[in-house]
Design goal:
The structure is a single chain. The protein is α/β, with parallel strands linked by helices. Helices cover 13% and strands 27% of the residues. It is globular and about 50 Å long. The termini are far apart.
């Protein structure tokens, strides 16, 4: 099902998609997208959506298994509280990317804004993975509670992240390719090299990333990555009364 979204209100666009899914459509191509919000919200497994343009906020929020590929940039809140599925962005992403993400995969080819991965979490079989191709702004992985966040630093920047990385982090893990200074990370975060099991997962995920981006795969060494992990599951426990 192909939809020309020129001058189409976001409510009408999403209603067309939902009606198509209810009627059994499994493939959607959305052309001329310009800021329409909430595309893919709650869409289930078995549906693929290709977006040509720049979708608005909360792309794929609460998504339940669909696959969304964006040939362009995305705005804030992509994959907000997403449960399952995959979102592939062949461009850059705005702030709070992957906010409270609970499962599935989110691949960003370029850079991401502030507070990417904030409140990410995992629960039973739900396990989220975010891969950033370029770099990230401040507060990466803030209050992170589960899942995996990877920054590949494909442009080989000296510092691929901003400041306050992992502030309040109490679960999950981040894998950053490149150099991090102590002053860039939250006091709750420790450093170590990935182990063999973690490295195998990183290789598997990055292979999928390059395939989705239709890029020539890069060959990395384990020593290029640093693992960031929470020192405590309750970093602010001394502030509570119980």
């Amino acid at each position: 099902m192909r939809i020309d979204a020129t001058k189409v209100h976001y409510k009408d666009l999403n209603e067309d998609i939902n009606q198509g899914v209810a009627a059994g459509e499994t493939e959607f191509i959305l052309d001329n997208i310009k800021g329409q919000r909430y595309i893919g919200v709650g869409i289930p497994e078995g549906v693929e959506i290709t977006i040509n343009g720049v979708p608005g906020q909360d792309l794929g929020a609460f998504m339940n298994g669909a696959v969304v590929r964006v040939n362009g940039n995305v705005q804030d809140g992509t994959a907000n509280t997403m449960n399952k599925g995959k979102i592939v962005v062949r461009g850059d992403a705005g702030d709070i990317t992957g906010y409270a993400m609970r499962g599935g995969k989110l691949f960003i080819r370029g850079h991401v804004g502030y507070r990417t991965g904030i409140h990410m979490k995992a629960f039973h079989e739900l396990f989220p993975t975010v891969v950033v191709g370029d770099n990230a702004q401040d507060y990466l992985g803030e209050y992170m509670a589960g899942g995996v966040l990877i920054v590949l630093n494909l442009k080989d920047r000296e510092n691929p992240t901003g400041h306050f990385v992992g502030a309040g982090m109490h679960g999950g893990a981040m894998y950053i390719r490149g150099k991090l200074e102590d002053f860039q990370v939250g006091a709750e975060v420790g450093f170590m090299e990935p182990n063999d099991e973690e490295w195998a997962y990183l290789q598997e995920v990055t292979k999928d990333f390059f395939q989705e981006m239709e890029m020539e795969p890069r060959v990395f060494e384990k020593s290029e990555f640093v693992k960031l992990y929470p020192k405590s599951a309750r970093p602010y426990g001394n502030m509570y009364s119980y």
